[in-house]
Amino acid sequence: MTLVDATFYAIHLLVGALWTGSVLFAAWAVLPTARAGEVRPEPLEAVFGRLTTFSRAAAVVILLTGGHMAAQLYTFQSLTGTPRGHLVLTMTLLWLVLAGLVEVGNSRMSDGLAAKKVRSPAREAGRFYRAAGVVAVLLLVDAGILAADGAGFLAL
Question: Closest Cα partner for 13 from 65, 88, 48?
Answer without folding.
Answer: 65
